[in-house]
Amino acid sequence: MTSTPTTGRGTYQVRTFGCQMNVHDSERLAGLLETAGYTPAPESADVERGDVDVIVFNTCAVRENADRRLYGHLGMLRPAKRRNPNLQIAVGGCLAQKDRSTITDRAPWVDVVFGTHNIHSLPVLLDRARHERDAQVEILESLEVFPSTLPTKRESAAAGWVSISVGCNNTCTFCIVPSLRGKEKDRRPGDILAEVQHLVDTGAIEVTLLGQNVNSYGVEFGDRGAFAKLLRACGEIDGLERIRFTSPHPAMFTDDVIDAMAETPTVMPQLHMPLQSGSDRILKAMRRSYRSAKFLRILDSVRERIPHAAITTDIIVGFPGETEDDFQRTLDVVEASRFSSAFTFQYSPRPGTPAADMEDQVPKEVVQDRYERLTALQDRISAEENQRLIGTEVEVIIGDGEGTRDQQTHRLSGRSRDNRLVHVGIPAGLSEADMPRPGDAVTARVTAAAPFYLVADSGVTPADAGHASAPTGASSGEPAGEFRIRRTRSGDAWQARLTAADDSCSTGGCGTGPAPAGPVGLGMPSVRAPQQGREQGVK
């Protein structure tokens, strides 16, 4: 469902921390606010000048410093609140679900606190706080309205998120998410397919199915094969070019899902499969109901059916009781798995989880040493796997804000079918009218590779020397002289958004169009971010 604004109520910002589920929830929060009459604050908006009327923090509770990060941001807003008493500050998400009224005790200038089960209440709570001049704290213990039935303000014209379930039935000892998101609740297949169809009808060509454990989908209505059936059904939707999903659980990953992936052309050759540890002893202590041998068998089965699949993972280093031998077993599994990239996290105890009270907490300096050794190994493997792709053809959907240095390097950036980040060299002399738009597809050959990205400069001829140069550290090959652009419905949708924003600015309503372009941290397996992460995984 898309948002339909009513009357003007002021401007808003939504600041998102955490995983892809939070990013998806933030799109719902933006949709709710715009339906209630608020407009997105322009990128140049300054809270100190009073340019923003409502600031919403959508929080994460997974990381050790989640509390410190939130209260640091809230502290920086206190002077702005003093100068502008009409500024409203709202805090939602997992940390709000966990801390509740503690937030307003520590930061009494916060106006609204809401939880993971009642994001739909935000506009009403803002109105109530404004009317009563008092903080409103509302935390529900169970889901009242499924988030995907709420209005949505999508960041991307080309790609959309679709929740197929919320909550989790697992009891991993390191994870606080089940206690904050609740037990798994599955949507009916017809509702999911209707939402996917709506996204396609509005210009999307890529959809990512979301769930705490997507492959356990169907458990609530007793169909163990429901997820594989859902993948196949999505593959029948005309106009949908790319289907992804995250995150599955190894213990529940079955052959029918692998078959559906291999036999559905629009399911991308990419899989995020959380390992967490290569030590069976540590997996048992984590209450992860699989062992390393099963994990490796799954990867073998996937690669047998989908030879070019890019597989990513999550790994926690320094779980309580982890010995050097346990850690070596993790290194061995990583070497054998040949992940294209990995989210590597240093374990941090989270109050309320069984692992927080376990004995034999690993000293910080030991965890740091193991973390550095693991990331060095994965960086080497990522570089080797990427270098194997030099000379191969890739189709890249151009993103909006994917490449932070694109202007300097004369490249555009986006994601290949296997979700690798690719920087594509643009031929010199290409007119502005002929340039690929965000959402358009570009086909080129890989000419260079680094651990965290690929470079496809095959369209850059020797005469264009200096027009696009391989980034430092990239391993280069010879340009293949190939560059093709395919206009897409998503590119058309992006252009329509841009035109609408320009028209709005010309009539004095600048800021009411699409959200400002720029990088969006999705918390998903990307090419660069994983090796930088130090937080504890949630899968």
UniProtKB/TrEMBL annotation:
Its EC number is 2.8.4.3. Binds 2 [4Fe-4S] clusters. One cluster is coordinated with 3 cysteines and an exchangeable S-adenosyl-L-methionine. One of its GO terms (cellular component) is cytosol. It catalyses: N(6)-dimethylallyladenosine(37) in tRNA + (sulfur carrier)-SH + AH2 + 2 S-adenosyl-L-methionine = 2-methylsulfanyl-N(6)-dimethylallyladenosine(37) in tRNA + (sulfur carrier)-H + 5'-deoxyadenosine + L-methionine + A + S-adenosyl-L-homocysteine + 2 H(+). It is found in: Cytoplasm. PROSITE patterns: MTTASE_N, MTTASE_RADICAL, RADICAL_SAM. Residues 497-539 are annotated as: Disordered. Its cofactor is [4Fe-4S] cluster. [4Fe-4S] cluster 1 binds at C19, C60, C94. The keyword Iron applies. Residues 154-384 form the Radical SAM core domain. GO terms for molecular function: 4 iron, 4 sulfur cluster binding; metal ion binding; tRNA-2-methylthio-N(6)-dimethylallyladenosine(37) synthase activity. Keywords: 4Fe-4S, Cytoplasm, Iron, Iron-sulfur, Metal-binding, S-adenosyl-L-methionine, Transferase, tRNA processing. Its main location: cytoplasm. [4Fe-4S] cluster 2 binds at C168, C172, C175. HAMAP family: tRNA_metthiotr_MiaB. Monomer. Catalyzes the methylthiolation of N6-(dimethylallyl)adenosine (i(6)A), leading to the formation of 2-methylthio-N6-(dimethylallyl)adenosine (ms(2)i(6)A) at position 37 in tRNAs that read codons beginning with uridine. Belongs to the methylthiotransferase family. MiaB subfamily. This is tRNA-2-methylthio-N(6)-dimethylallyladenosine synthase. The gene is miaB.
